[in-house]
Amino acid sequence: MKLKITHTTSYSYDEPVSYALQQVRLTPMDNPQQKVLNWNVAIEGGDTELTFLDQHKNHTMLVRVEPDRNEVRIIASGEVETNDTVGVLGKVYGTAPLWHFQQHTRRTAPGKGVAKLARIIGTTDSQLDDLHTLSRAVLNAVPYGKGGTFVGTTAEEAIISGGGVCQDHAQIFVSAARKAGIPARYVSGYLMMNDRVDQDASHAWAEAHLQGLGWVGFDISNGISPDERYVRLATGLDSRDAAPISGVRMGTANESMIVSLQIQQ
Amino acid sequence: MGSDRKNFDEMLFGSEGVRQPYDNYEKWFGSEDPARLTKKSKEAEAFFRRTGITFNVYGQAAAQERLIPFDLVPRILSSREWTRLSKGIEQRVRAINAFLHDIYNRQEILRAGRVPIELISQNAAFLPQMIGMSPPGDVYTHIVGTDIVRTGEDDFFVLEDNARTPSGVSYMLENRETMLHMFPELFSQIKVQPVSDYPKNLRKSLAACAPHSCEGKPTVAVLTPGIHNSAYFEHSFLADQMGVELVEGHDLRVVDGHIAMRTTQGYKVIDVLYRRVDDEYLDPLNFKPESMLGVPGIMDVYRAGNITIANAPGTGIADDKAIYSYMPDIIEFYTGEKAILKNVETWRCSEPASLQYVLEHLSELVVKEVHGSGGYGMLVGPAASQKELSAFTAKLKSNPGNYIAQPTLSLSTVPIFTKKQLAPRHVDLRPFVLVSPNKVSITPGGLTRVALKAGSLVVNSSQGGGTKDTWVLED
Amino acid sequence: MLGKTAGGLYWMFRFLERGENTARLVEAGFRIALTRSTDSETEWKSVVTTAGVKDGYGAKYDTFNAANVVDYLLRDTTNPSSVISVTEKARTNARMVRTALTTEVWESVNENWMTLKSALKKPVKETELPAILGIIRQQSALVRGALHGTMLRNDIFDFAMIGTALERADNTARIIDVKYYTLLPSASFVGSSIDNVQWETVLRSVSAHRAFRWLNESEMTSSTIAEFLMLDARFPRSLAFCTKHLVANLGYLAKDYGERLPCHDLADSLQSKLKKNDIGSIFETGLHQFIGDFIRENNAVGAQIELDYRFNG
User: Fold this and answer.
1) Which residue of C has its CA nearest to A251?
2) In C, residues 155-194, which contact A (CB 8 Å cutoff)?
3) Domains (ranges, CATH) in chain A?
4) What are the pLDDT digits (tens) for A72-112?
5) What stretch of H or E contains B421?
């Protein structure tokens, strides 16, 4: 399936900002599930200082907001050819060793809630089945709902709050999988919802590593494994590692963000 | 406190008199008037205060600046002793750099099962942002301070490999300056290998590690957390001696893909940053977001190959006290040679059998925190009270992985000058090593730290230790 | 040079100069209080006003007497302009810019701090005051000597001199500002004892009483004094002298860096105001008005320098 994507993120500041940086992971890479036909990230009101591959081999840009701007706009757009691999990315590895994906971060540190979910793993002979059960259990414990969590919410906090968005689901899932000894990672990317062109926001899901299969994706929020409607942007241990955009700025200005995302065939 | 066993004294050798390296010094000392030496000693202290060679003490009022006491009797090593030591240190430092490159790339040593994966995977000093990264020239530890203790004529042990940001080199340099100033005649009678080239060599060594993107003469700078840091004197001293700028995080920005410092004439690119800020505070964009000391985006610039950070982030994985116990294997794995310098026998309390042994022999052992430094959080068994021992037993049981234990070594002694006479005190030695892509250089001597309290084995300056000038004799 | 270093040098020398000036003010106040039986409360009050710390002082004390004023100006750490406060701040700045200083300058600043900290440890008794003021003056001279004797004449030196010149001009101007009424020709009754006291206070506050007498032996009038303090470039604390050095050192920077900046124009205009006026025309415009403008413009030059040479970002 050929997906045409235009993803615009606009930041505006209530006073001019003298110095601000944005780390941008908005460039999909080729893999067994997707082939990038063309892609471009344009910055309005900022300069790309450099690009590099991070420790997860995500294509990363460091953008500097032009001094004393009130607004900066990041526009990622292009076309990606995707195939349905029934969620299996396969045995695709970077430099990071598999054990790295069993390491917890501050956002995925397991507590009681995660530990309880993690006990699902091992209930049957099939890790794959157990992970699907885990995925359903996460959504069950933390139904989809905005407002209860924010960008820095940890997996355990999201369970306690009792509601969350795709970021929380994916983080709880990887936390529980790791707790049970399965390497797992967070994925940020795009999902085309069939009934619309204008999508709400970019998406997040999880991947777990299974003997024999390699990496397998789980979209917890939608209860399925990623198919040809998904485009992978970045991976990491948690939502901070794989954040499409994260930044720092000097001074006291408040920031507001507007996202527009269009995906069509 | 301390051990009752007979210590090896490096100056006086039982009934046979003075050990050979101290021959000439002893003759000079014998002819000196103790009153003059006492006066000189006071002069030295006034000199240190006036020049501001002080360190700030953590946990005390901000304005507290303390002097590290200086003892005027030098610690003397023969050139033969030094040659052997420096060979051993060089071997060790090369192995550490190979280890670091391996750990952040292919991890052959883990695949080969020579170091257990858990030691790395469960180690807070492992820095994921370094995965797949090769710093310029593959140098990770541009500056190393290897802590060495001695227990006998030929018995040198490595106690710690300080591969993060070893401090103390300014004291090595100032101690020599002070001795030259106080006793010029000594240096005309006894030929001592100079240490004063260190700042020049440091700058050269750092410049040799400049990234490929650097055109022309590399610009070097020293990054300090600021004037309230305990080692600020050293930071400004080294910057001054090298003739490079001393910068703080807020002086720096990302400009045209590089890190640049704000000067009176605009931003100027830095090629090599000798940073004295810890990893987690180095970059709020990539590490602790609340850090005010760091430089946002510097890790990005680093990964893009546009700056050299010295020492490389993530080097702590090599000087961790649990890794230490594997150092003989690590050296063999990467150099194919046996370690020249001995390791102190170490029990890893994470291993149940070791923990058992440690708990049974607690009163004979020294127990240290795996990530501890500065002599804090450590137990010296033979000197501990019953209460301290039982408190530590509880700590060990609740978090064994946090501790290692070592036998209480009978550290060698070197005399210090007390009021009118010489009295033996325990010492250690921290030589300073510079690493560049094609060279490892070690300044002859180093910093000798001395426990000023009779019998004490704790040499840390934060806990009543002092320093001595360290001489390596010319052949 | 780092912008921060330039700022550190500039402030280090402003603070050093301020400490010395405060000591001078105390010295003059003390001298007047000792030798004249006039209203010493008013005298001490104007010392506090001149030092620019009236609000802080008022929050702490109800009356202006020697003991309180001397303590507040010399050794009160809650007073940001006290001698001990500015000495500490000068040293903190010196530590920050340590790499830009020669060993001699650093050591003299460090010793200045150590010496004054110990001298001002306990409240100063009246009998000890002259000796302590002497120490402050002497320490200050040692720093200046080290600066002039050992530092390269480059941008580092320029920023040190600029800080000194701005602070000193501000200090002299404030003395004139507080005492302007005693210098007005209309208020002048030549020979009256009140005026003599006031004039002597003003002159002593800038350590100019001897110099003035040498230069103006016969003619002690309000206008000769005002002229001396403002326009006589031979006198190292006059506005003309300070401004001349300010402009000169900014000029060296412009030459060194190959760039003229907005602060240069501001400093030039400050200097030309002094140059194109004689004392008569100043009195005509109004001394108070003139000196008020000078203080504001002098401060504006300082603020512009901070921007132009990127002290803070």
Assistant:
1) C313
2) none
3) 2-82+245-264 (2.60.40.2250), 88-236 (3.10.620.30)
4) 999 999 999 999 999 999 999 999 999 999 999 999 999 99
5) strand B421-430
